[in-house]
Design a protein that fits this description.
The chain is α+β, with helices and mostly antiparallel strands and about 110 residues long. The chain is built from 5 helices and 3 strands, in the order ααβααββα.
Length: about 110
């Protein structure tokens, strides 16, 4: 469970930043170099590399260096565990909402 929680934390941390989500959206369309991404997001190379490192650590982005160019692409990691975690919590919240709604319906009839 600790590894599961660690992977979730790492993924949600990576996805918690709008720049990193933007990087993933761009990479979903096509691979891009660090330089191209830095220019797109109007960031320094160092700043963009830090974002890419967080995404790489989470398995969401993979990079490959050819000569002086480091190219980014979507990583091998799928978000199945995260989707399952969100679905489990969605069901739990929906169940609580339904119980609250049923309680309110019962108590309205008593007033």
């Amino acid at each position: 469970m600790v590894q599961y929680a660690g992977a979730l934390d790492q993924t949600f941390t990576a996805l918690g930043d709008p720049t990193r989500r933007g990087i993933l959206e761009l990479l979903a369309r096509s691979d891009a170099s660090i330089s191209d991404l830095a220019q797109t997001f109007e960031m320094t190379l160092t700043g963009l590399k830090k974002h890419v490192r967080v995404l790489e650590d989470a398995g969401l982005v993979a990079t490959k260096k050819v000569g002086r160019v480091r190219t980014c692409r979507l990583g091998p990691r799928r978000l199945d565990a995260e989707a399952a975690w969100m679905e489990q919590h969605r069901q739990m919240l929906e169940s609580r909402h339904n119980r609250l709604e049923a309680f309110l319906e019962r108590t309205r009839g008593d007033a």
